Amino acid sequence: MTEIGYGVLFVSALVFLALMGMHIAVALFAVGFAGIWLIRDDVEMAMRLMYLSSYNGIADYIFATIPLFVLMGLLVSISNVGRDTFEVAESLLRRVKGGLGVATVAANTVFAAVTGVSIASAAVFTRVAVPEMARHGYRKTFAAGTVAGSSVLGMMIPPSLLMIIYGVLAEQSIGKLFIAGVLPGILLALLFAVMILLLARFAPGMVYDTKRFAELGASWPLERVLPKGEILSKLVPIAALVFLVIGGLYSGFFTPTEAGGVGAFGALVIAVARRQLNRSRLWRVLKETGGISVGILILLIAAGFYSRMLSVAGIPVAISDLVQNSGLGLYGFLTFYILIIVLLGMILDSSSILLIMTPVAAPIAAGLGMNLIHFGVITVLAVEIGLLTPPFGLSIFTVKSTLNDPSVSVESIFAGAFPYVVVMLITVLLIVVFPQLTLALL
After folding, report:
1. Cα separation of 277 and 190, whole Å?
2. pTM listed for this prediction
3. 436 with 182: CB under 8 angstroms?
């Protein structure tokens, strides 16, 4: 069998096992082990490579970023920072048509800069934003779709766990990936806001519950407009944390690992200062941090072993030669690649897609002369589209389960999030055509 044949076989086997319900790490180990054994006919070699992957896979200092950023995100989540950010945005945008939708996007943008997890954003703002938007005459499906759609900002604006995973798999600087995600993340947030304003202006039936909104009156006021002092008190902690993490990374004062440590300490100070952290909550946060971090690290070890198998088989080189000889070119390859990722997003979670596709695709992109930092931003954004597409749509199901409202179906939330999918596809196109959007700050 040729290298291309082995590549199709191993990737198909991995997707099949994942769809059958096998844990992705177990599937990666199984396919990697079977692949090396089959190709080299040497079970001892397969065992040695598994040992080397297990030891070398997470021995690097950079892997400390994972538990530190996870800890920071969990501490921020229990400190009610998300709620405060939304209240400030709500107060500032109260007179804008569609303002609460824009406020949700704005709050999610700020929250993303200190959590790095889309699912956390979806859970927090479902509880905070959806009831408030419904109370002010917005359609619940639009409100839920807005929360799900804007939650993807958590993986674009640094720190981002998907950026860390991609950086490890593609052997790229995590600090540069974080910085490269800033402008695309801001662009995506701005396009979301513009889309909401246009819908509110030209298609109000998609945004508002017409009957409810008419009863309330078009100029429905907030019960209490936040005074400037309260706005500052709510914004200063989160602004300081963002400045510490992003400012330290951008200036080069912190490495990503140091930024994670400083951010986690800052989030701890905020949680203690707000009296949101007692002994039981601290223990729960530490347990969740350990559980999430270990899960990610096991995935990275398994992905490293899977990558070694692909290298042993010569699959990346063979596929790269095939792409170059086919005449597709860079843009043809990217079109095909993004389409595959979006389709995989309908059946697999974000981490699994990265673990399956990055070891194969990154060498091909490099062979076509593409900057792998730029390629990483495109990859993460394309993967995030899968959080909003049926039937898997993890963000959609997170919103649904958190909302716990029988009147709002999963299908209606998918429909409410569809405009955000369109905007994300437009953003991917812009980033592909204009690499400066990712590389300008580097």
Report:
1. 34
2. 0.84
3. no
What's CA 438's distance to the chain center, in Å? Answer: 16
> Any idea what the Cα angle at residue 139 is, between residues 138 and 144, rounded to 5°?
105
List the structure tokens of 309. Answer: 């198998």
Helix, strand, coil percentages, rounded to 5, for the chain: 80, 0, 20
What is the Cα–Cα distance from 332 to 383, expressed in whole angstroms? 18
| Longest CA pairwise span in the chain (Å) | 75
Can you name the residues that pair with 208 across neighbouring β-strands? Answer: 138
Nearest to 392 by CA among 41, 112, 119, 71: 119
CA distance 97 to 90: 12
Burial 226-255 (b: 16+ CB within 10 A, else e): beeeebeebbebbeebbebbbebbbeeebb
SS3 249: helix
* pLDDT tens for each residue of 55-90: 776 666 777 888 888 888 888 878 888 788 888 887
Q: Are 8 and 361 in contact (CB under 8 A)?
A: no
Tokens 């006021």 belong to residue: 221
Cis (ω within 30 of 0) for the bond into 359? no
| Residues paired with residue 303 on neighbouring β-strands, in sequence order | none
- Lookup: tokens for 295: 């899960």
Instruction: Report how far residue 283's alpha carbon sits from residue 362's, in angstroms, rounded to the nearest whole number.
Output: 39
The CA-based dihedral angle spanning residues 342, 348, 352, 357, taken in that order and rounded to the nearest 10 degrees: -40
Count of beta carbons in the 10 Å neighbourhood of residue 44:
9
Distance of alpha carbon 288 from the chain centroid: 18
pLDDT per residue as tens digits for the range 171-230:
899 989 999 999 999 999 999 999 999 999 999 888 887 776 666 554 444 455 778 888
User: And the tokens for 54?
Assistant: 């297990």
